[in-house]
Amino acid sequence: MRLGIMLGICLAICARPVFGVAPQPTASGKSGTAEALYLELSNTPLDPARVYQVRDASLDRAAIHITLEDGTIALTQDVLGRITGAFFEGEGEVLLIPPDEVERKSIGLFTGMAILEERFTSAYFRFNDDTAAELKPGLRAADNADGFISRWGDTARTLAQADALRLLVTFSQMLPVEGRSFTSATPRSLDPRDRMLHARLQGVKLGIFDIHFDSKATEQIQAGQARAAKNGVVYYDIWTSFSINPASLDPNRQAPAWPGESLTTAREEGEPREEFAVHRYEIEAEVRPPKQLNAEARLEVDIAHGGVRALIFELSRFLHLMVVEANGQPVEFIHNPSIEGTQVSRRGNDLVVVILPEPTPAGQKIELRFVYGGEVLAEAGNGLLYVGARGTWYPNRGMAMADFDLKFHYPRGWTLLATGKPMTTSIRPGDLPPAGAMPNIADVQTARWISERPIPVAGFNLGRYTRATAQAGNVTVESYAAPGVEREFPKAPVRIIEPDPAVSPELKRPQEVIVPVPPSPARNALHVAEATAQALQFYSRRFGPFPYSHLALTQMPGPESQGWPGLVFLSSYAFLSEQERADLHMDLSRSILAQQVPAHETAHQWWGDLVTWKSYRDQWISEGLSNYSSLMMLQEKNPVAFHQIMERYRQELVENKDGELPKDAGPVTLGVRLLSSHAPEGYEAISYGRGTWLFHMLRSMLLDVAAQGPGKGKHGRNNAEEPFVLALRKLRQRFEGKAISTRELLEIFAEDLPPSLRYEGRASLDWFLQGWINGTALPKLQLESVKFAPRGNATMVSGTILQKNASEDLVTSVPIYAVLSGNASVFIGRVFADGTESSFHLSAPAGTRKILLDPKQTILTAPK
Question: Is-above-0.70 flag for pTM?
Answer without folding.
Answer: yes
